[in-house]
């Protein structure tokens, strides 16, 4: 079973597929991590996350770190021999346990070659999402590189699967509609370049109801625009500053699992209790996978009972606010050029896509995101985004360093404060979730 | 010693930069807002800045201070190499500081911090609660023309 098929079948059988962000420099440790992921009390797929030297096209530094015994923050797939990577996977990776390579490179060709040479077919990224937030690669070059990445995947044996990273875009303070739009546009880019099995990502943000509306919008757009393609939705547990308390971290992860289940998303990428401090251990990863799976199982139970809150926008005839904004963004980009890669480049040059706080030279840098008083993520400035008639009036607000810092820490502080003061769940999710699911967490 | 350095670079421009392997941005955006509030102009080079771009930017902008930030765990290793490069290219007197999460296992040891200072950094702001306050004080003193190394 290939990656997309595995996820689809397991979800149809009633499970949320959970996956770690795990990468270790040492092949033996990497293998142990995959074995432990496979053995976790959860429906899992495996991950090999690459180190940042390799991601950024500097494998020589990764090789030197290996030689000198300096720690790396992931598996340096270009520095280890192919035989070493095959030994990492032997007897662990198979149809019952697909493994995905996660990297973050805007120049993914060598990584993709090493991935397929090792017998793997699933990876992730995208011409926008692995370019703008990271590094300095020109967007035109990233588009060319990702085109080649699609060709390399199609040239290898096996059914390739590509996941967009567009639902993350900086992790925080990018309003959900633009996350949804970029995720869909990247999936369309993969589709146009021949990939038949894709997943679209959405990273948990600051407001549970708004997140549900966003995933509903994402699914609606995929249904409209990804015809003839196998697609599923992958939720990322919060990608911004993670709570420092173990209870806060576990509660935030449980909310991500509930978001996935309540919106029909098929896969979840977890975060651990160690996330705020350092690179997590294998045991911490397994604990996170099992915690998320348990939360998902409870949510499936309440979903079956018909009491779990569903996607808000889904109930609105026009799809809701997130859908309206996302559709306007997607349409404006597709109107820029017949080729979707060129369209993305032109859209950024015109500010029709504009990632708040992204410092990449290709990004207009005029749009700004902000948190409302109730934690909803909205626009402080739409710059040249084609949302003038779609977004309501925006009252001006200057962003000071301290208010910016509070926004970045809003989720961490909310979950940590709840864990520290009462031991119960944060107020921001109250009223949106089912009581039985919440009570279960308090005793974990 | 730092007063001399400030005298050598009288401008109010501060360069904020990530390190070559580090793709994180939030730290850089925050530092820009903070340093601007303290009265400086900021040239934000963004993430993943190679050494030659940093050197060229220093030649071009003649900054009063270079602020390097790294949160991906490679800051110690990369910071050591970078400061040796900077100090070796004639930028001997330019105030340069580094901060963030500089190691993969939480805070750096005192020995590692000393390594960075010995290699040429004027201050190291490793990940602990008071680092930002100390950094703010450092920049404020720079604005008054009399920064001092924090060791």
Describe this structure as you would to a colleague.
The complex is a heterodimer of chains A (444) and B (151). Chain A contains 15 helices and ten strands. With 444 residues, chain A is an alpha/beta fold. Chain B has six helices and five strands. In chain B, strand 1 (13-18), helix 2 (26-37) and strand 2 form a beta-alpha-beta unit. The radius of gyration of chain B is 14 Å and the shape is globular. Chain B has a five-stranded parallel beta sheet with strand order 2-1-3-4-5, sandwiched between helices. Chains A and B meet through helix 3 and helix 14 of A and helix 2 of B. Chain A: This is Glutamate mutase subunit E. Chain A: It holds the Pfam family Met_asp_mut_E.
- Tally of discrete structural domains of chain A: 1
Cα-to-Cα separation, first versus last residue of chain B: 13 Å
Total number of domains of chain B: 1
Q: Name the largest protein-protein interface in this structure.
A: A-B, 32 and 25 residues
| Poorly predicted sequence stretches spanning 5 or more consecutive residues of chain A | 427-444
Indicate the CATH topology of chain A: TIM Barrel
Largest sheet of chain B: 5 strands, parallel
Helix content of chain A: 40-55%
> Which spans of chain B of ≥5 residues are poorly predicted at pLDDT below 50?
1-9
The proportion of strand residues of chain A reads 5-15%
Overall pLDDT score of chain A: 91
The termini of chain A sit apart by: 34 Å
| Radius of gyration from the alpha-carbon trace of chain A, in angstroms | 20 Å
Output the structural class of chain A. alpha/beta
Oligomer: heterodimer
* CATH architecture assignment of chain A: Alpha-Beta Barrel
Give the H and E element order of chain B. Answer: HEHEHEHEHEH
- Return Rg of chain B in Å: 14 Å
Taking the sheet with the most strands of chain A, its summary is: 8 strands, parallel
In DSSP terms, counting alpha (H) and pi (I) runs of 4 or more, how many helices of chain B? 6
EC number (chain A): 5.4.99.1
Pfam family, one (chain A): Met_asp_mut_E
Keywords (chain A): Cobalamin, Cobalt, Isomerase
Protein name (chain A): Glutamate mutase subunit E
């Amino acid at each position: 079973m290939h990656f997309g098929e595995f996820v689809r079948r397991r979800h149809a059988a009633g499970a949320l597929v959970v996956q770690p962000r795990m990468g270790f420099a040492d092949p033996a440790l990497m293998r142990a991590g995959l074995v432990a992921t496979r053995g976790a009390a959860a429906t899992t797929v495996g991950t090999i996350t690459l180190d940042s030297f390799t991601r950024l096209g500097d494998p020589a530094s990764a090789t030197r770190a290996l030689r000198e015994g300096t720690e790396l923050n992931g598996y340096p797939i270009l520095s280890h021999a192919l035989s070493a990577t095959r030994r990492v996977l032997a007897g662990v990776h198979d149809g019952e346990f697909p493994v995905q390579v996660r990297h973050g490179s805007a120049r993914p060709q060598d990584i993709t070659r090493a991935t397929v040479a090792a017998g793997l077919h699933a990876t992730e990224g995208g011409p926008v999402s692995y370019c703008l937030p990271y590094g300095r690669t020109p967007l035109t070059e990233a588009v060319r590189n990702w085109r080649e990445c699609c060709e390399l995947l199609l040239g290898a044996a096996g059914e390739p699967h590509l996941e967009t990273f567009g639902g993350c875009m900086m992790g925080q303070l990018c309003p959900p509609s633009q996350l949804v739009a970029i995720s869909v546009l990247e999936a369309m880019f993969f589709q146009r370049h021949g990939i038949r099995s894709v997943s679209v990502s959405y990273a948990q943000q600051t407001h549970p109801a708004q997140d549900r509306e966003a995933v509903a919008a994402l699914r609606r757009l995929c249904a409209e625009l990804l015809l003839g393609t196998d697609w599923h939705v992958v939720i990322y547990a919060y990608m911004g500053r993670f709570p420092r308390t173990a209870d806060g971290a576990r509660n935030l992860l449980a909310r991500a699992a509930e978001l996935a289940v309540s919106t029909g998303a098929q896969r979840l990428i977890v975060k651990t209790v160690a996330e705020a401090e350092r690179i997590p251990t294998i045991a911490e990863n397994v604990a996170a996978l099992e915690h998320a799976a348990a939360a998902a199982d409870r949510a499936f139970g309440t979903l079956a009972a018909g009491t779990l809150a569903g996607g808000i926008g889904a109930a609105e005839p026009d799809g809701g606010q997130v859908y309206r904004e996302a559709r306007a963004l997607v349409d404006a980009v597709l109107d820029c050029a017949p080729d979707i890669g060129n369209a993305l480049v032109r859209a950024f040059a015109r500010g029709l896509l504009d990632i708040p706080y992204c410092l990449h030279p290709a990004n207009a840098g005029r749009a700004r995101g902000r948190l409302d008083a109730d934690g909803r993520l909205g626009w402080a400035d739409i710059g040249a985004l084609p949302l003038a008639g779609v977004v309501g009036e925006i009252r001006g607000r200057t962003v000071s360093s301290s208010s910016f810092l509070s926004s970045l820490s809003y989720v961490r502080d909310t979950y940590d404060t709840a864990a520290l003061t009462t031991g119960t769940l944060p107020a921001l999710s109250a009223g949106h979730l089912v009581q039985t699911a919440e009570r279960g967490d308090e005793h974990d | 010693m730092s007063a001399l350095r400030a005298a050598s670079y009288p401008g109010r421009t501060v360069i904020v930069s990530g390190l070559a392997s580090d793709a994180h941005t939030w730290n850089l955006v925050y530092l820009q807002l903070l340093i601007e509030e303290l009265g400086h102009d900021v040239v934000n080079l963004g993430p993943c800045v190679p050494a030659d771009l940093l050197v060229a930017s220093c030649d071009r902008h003649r900054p009063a201070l270079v602020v390097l930030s790294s949160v991906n765990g490679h800051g110690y290793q990369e910071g050591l190499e970078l400061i040796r490069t900077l100090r070796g290219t004639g930028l001997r007197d330019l105030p340069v500081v580094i901060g963030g999460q500089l190691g993969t296992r939480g805070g750096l040891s005192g020995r590692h911090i000393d390594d960075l200072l010995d290699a040429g950094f004027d201050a190291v702001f490793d990940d602990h609660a008071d680092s930002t306050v100390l950094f703010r004080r450092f920049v404020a003193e720079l604005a008054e023309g009399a920064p001092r190394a924090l060791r």
